[in-house]
């Protein structure tokens, strides 16, 4: 299928799904029932998710839900972010946006505050404000090559000056069964957009469908299979690789359904939840932090090649410490913050060095001169 066809087919299918529940698009999910209680039945019925990324939401998060559909995950997340947090849903299908917005006011009353907004956009181009573009097009329809050029200039200016989702504004990006619907040609851009909008240290939790074997072209060209969240599925290995290539760390499957959701032409399509973290990028230096990998493996190695042997207190920079301890893998490590915050130059351990307990406690500073870590 061509890229344009993909979006037309998907929009058509989910416009129908917003009008009437589509059984074929429903995948059984074990949601947190206490969060569902506050939701209108129509939103629960028109649920086309395949996992529950709301489980990764923390108080105070600024959450972006990619392909928010009827708004179920947004309204669940709104119950978890608290008064300081916010939830933004982005979707390209008008009927889905209308369904989600229909309950915005009653939900704000139920939850005691309006923390949710729904925006029209493409998840592979999160800077483009599609509603604003439609207003522009209504006033200046495109009918010749010069108009196309003008539209392109307008888009560039709009993305730069008033992006739909601005750089580094979200602390958590979630999505439920949507990335597989994006055209393959746009996927690299989609993941780099997720990276762009996240704050340093921001997290990703994506529930989606993956395939255990490469999907043949004949299946990919079947519009019903593509829009039905099947033939556009990432290959199970490529999905992780795509996030590593985009610069994320701590990329892992946190949930994996042993039972496939569908089997087509012998290929298993199953629901998974991928988690990842955008590394901290603040000025980095050795401030005296250490982490100890708890096991059970002899050692683990991160995306940057750093090795953490089991049971050893390893010296890590301030940013590596922040990224690790804020990630979905924090429970695999014990973190030791320095007794007193050390300024640049206070400690200077080379990468891969151990750090004595005494040093972390601030009683003895065993190394202050060796290079490589600062
Ligand atoms: C399978 S449904 C999932 C909806 C919702 N996440 C849920 O859990 O019920 C896919 C949704 O993603 C939207 N969508 C698909 N591709 C998109 C894209 N490229 N940009 C924005 N929205 C997209 C569709 O309009 C639809 O609402």
Question: What is the fold's blueprint, element by element?
Answer:
Elements: H1 3-19, H2 33-36, H3 41-45, E1 62-66, H4 72-81, E2 86-91, H5 94-102, H6 104-111, E3 116-120, H7 130-139, H8 145-161, E4 170-176, H9 187-197, E5 198-211, H10 217-220, H11 223-227, E6 234-235, H12 236-245, E7 249-256, E8 262-264, E9 267-277, E10 289-293, E11 299-301, E12 307-309, E13 313-316, H13 318-326, E14 333-336, H14 357-361
Parallel strand pairs: 1-2, 1-4, 2-3, 4-5, 5-6
Antiparallel strand pairs: 5-9, 7-9, 8-9, 10-13, 10-14, 11-12
The structure holds S-adenosylmethionine.
Residues 10, 14, 47-49, 67-70, 72-73, 90-93, 96, 122-124, 176-178, 181-182, 229 line the site of S-adenosylmethionine (SAM).
Brief rundown of the structure:
This protein has helices spanning 3-19, 33-36, 41-45, 72-81, 94-102, 104-111, 130-139, 145-161, 187-197, 217-220, 223-227, 236-245, 318-326, 357-361, and strands spanning 62-66, 86-91, 116-120, 170-176, 198-211, 234-235, 249-256, 262-264, 267-277, 289-293, 299-301, 307-309, 313-316, 333-336.
Outline the structure in words:
It is a single chain. With 374 residues, the chain is an alpha/beta fold. The chain folds into two domains: 3-127 and 163-277, Rossmann fold, CATH 3.40.50.150; 289-361, Ribosomal Protein L9, domain 1 (3-Layer(aba) Sandwich). It has helices spanning 3-19, 33-36, 41-45, 72-81, 94-102, 104-111, 130-139, 145-161, 187-197, 217-220, 223-227, 236-245, 318-326, 357-361, and strands spanning 62-66, 86-91, 116-120, 170-176, 198-211, 234-235, 249-256, 262-264, 267-277, 289-293, 299-301, 307-309, 313-316, 333-336. Helix 1 (3-19) packs parallel to helix 5 (94-102). The longest helix has 17 residues, at 3-19. The chain is globular, with a radius of gyration of 23 Å. The structure holds S-adenosylmethionine. S-adenosylmethionine binds at residues 10, 14, 47-49, 67-70, 72-73, 90-93, 96, 122-124, 176-178, 181-182, 229. S-adenosylmethionine (SAM) binds at residues 10, 14, 47-49, 67-70, 72-73, 90-93, 96, 122-124, 176-178, 181-182, 229.
């Amino acid at each position: 299928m061509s890229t344009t066809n993909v979006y037309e087919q998907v929009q058509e299918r989910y416009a129908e799904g917003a009008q009437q529940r589509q059984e074929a698009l429903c995948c059984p999910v074990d949601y947190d029932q206490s969060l569902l209680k506050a939701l209108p039945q129509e939103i629960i019925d028109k649920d086309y998710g395949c996992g529950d990324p709301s489980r990764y939401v923390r108080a105070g998060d600024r959450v972006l839900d990619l392909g928010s559909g009827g708004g179920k995950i947004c309204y669940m997340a709104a119950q978890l972010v608290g008064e300081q947090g916010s939830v933004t849903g982005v979707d390209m299908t008008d009927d889905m946006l209308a369904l989600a917005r229909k309950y915005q006011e009653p939900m704000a009353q139920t939850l005691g505050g309006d923390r949710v907004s729904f925006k029209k956009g493409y998840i592979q181009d999160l800077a483009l404000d599609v509603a604003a573009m439609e207003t522009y097009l209504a006033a200046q329809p495109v009918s010749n090559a010069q108009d196309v050029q003008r539209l392109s200039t307008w888009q560039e200016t709009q993305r730069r000056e008033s992006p739909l989702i601005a750089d580094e504004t979200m602390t958590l990006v979630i999505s439920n069964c949507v990335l597989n619907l994006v055209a393959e040609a746009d996927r690299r851009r989609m993941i780099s957009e997720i990276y762009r909008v996240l704050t340093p240290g921001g997290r990703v939790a994506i529930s989606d469908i993956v395939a255990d074997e490469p999907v043949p072209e004949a299946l990919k060209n079947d519009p019903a299979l593509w829009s039905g969240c099947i033939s556009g599925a990432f290959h199970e290995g490529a999905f992780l690789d795509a996030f590593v290539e985009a610069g994320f760390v701590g990329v892992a499957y946190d949930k994996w359904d042993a039972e496939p959701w569908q089997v087509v032409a012998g290929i298993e399509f199953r629901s998974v939840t991928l988690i990842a973290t955008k590394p901290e990028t603040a000025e980095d230096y050795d401030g005296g932090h250490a982490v100890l990998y708890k096991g059970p493996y002899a050692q683990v190695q991160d995306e940057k090649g750093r090795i953490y042997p089991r049971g050893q207190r390893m010296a890590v920079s301030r940013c590596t410490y922040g990224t690790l301890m804020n990630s979905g893998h924090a429970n695999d490590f014990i973190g030791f913050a320095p007794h007193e915050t050390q300024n640049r130059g206070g400690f200077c351990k080379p990468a891969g060095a151990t750090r004595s307990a005494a040093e972390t406690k601030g009683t003895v500073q065993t190394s202050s001169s060796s290079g490589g870590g600062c």
